[in-house]
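User: Sequence recovery, please. Input:
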């Protein structure tokens, strides 16, 4: 495992731990809501991989490793995301990270821990993973290239 993959995998693990904290908090509030959120996590993760990862021209070299492998199983042509795909991606991420906030705010320690974990993950992604990524269609990658030009 190289440095980029280390940060890619650990960033996903940190977000995963944050989501587990959200799952625990939601289950404490309601069994049915907890089950619903777990199902939503599965659907949202699939949407991210289908709408974004599967269109990446560099999925075979994905620093996050597992999403890249999952995306390779989906036969989609590489290219920029459509407006619908981008909207689907944003909604999926907002649901994954946003829904737990409804119950996390009741436990400040869990809430802060959730966002610290997500913050570290985003920092790792933006400072290491994105710098090595060759996805020319990613809006974040294009913004970084534009800043250097």
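Assistant: Recovered sequence (149 residues):
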């Amino acid at each position: 495992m190289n440095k980029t993959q280390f940060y890619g995998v650990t960033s996903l693990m940190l977000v995963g731990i944050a989501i587990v904290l959200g799952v625990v908090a939601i289950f404490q509030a309601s069994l049915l809501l907890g089950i619903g959120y777990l199902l939503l996590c599965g659907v949202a993760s699939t949407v991210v991989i289908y709408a974004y990862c599967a269109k990446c021209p560099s999925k075979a070299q994905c620093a996050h490793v597992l999403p890249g492998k999952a995306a390779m199983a989906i036969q989609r042509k590489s290219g920029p995301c459509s407006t619908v795909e981008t909207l689907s991606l944003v909604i999926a991420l907002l649901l994954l990270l946003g829904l737990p906030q409804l119950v996390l705010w009741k436990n400040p320690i869990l809430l802060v821990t959730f966002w610290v974990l997500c913050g570290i993950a985003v920092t790792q992604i933006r400072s290491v993973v994105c710098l090595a990524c060759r996805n020319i269609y990613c809006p974040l990658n294009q913004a970084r290239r534009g800043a250097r030009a």
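Helices lie at 3-29, 31-51, 66-72, 83-98, 101-104, 108-132, 139-148.
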